[in-house]
Amino acid sequence: MISPRLLSEPSYLCSSTFLPLNPLHKTLTKPSTKPYPKLPPIRSVLQYNRKPELAGTTPRVVVITSGKGGVGKTTTTANVGLSLARLGFSVVAIDADVGLRNLDLLLGLENRVNYTVVEVLNGDCRLDQALVRDKRWSNFELLCISKPRSKLPLGFGGKALVWLVDALKDRQEGCPDFILIDCPAGIDAGFITAITPANEAVLVTTPDITALRDADRVTGLLECDGIRDIKMIVNRVRTDLIRGEDMMSVLDVQEMLGLALLGVIPEDSEVIRSTNRGFPLVLNKPPTLAGLAFEQAAWRLVEQDSMKAVMVEEEPKKKGFFSFFGEFKGNEASFIERFHCHKAPAN
Question: Residues 58, 175: contact at Cβ < 8 Å?
Answer without folding.
Answer: yes
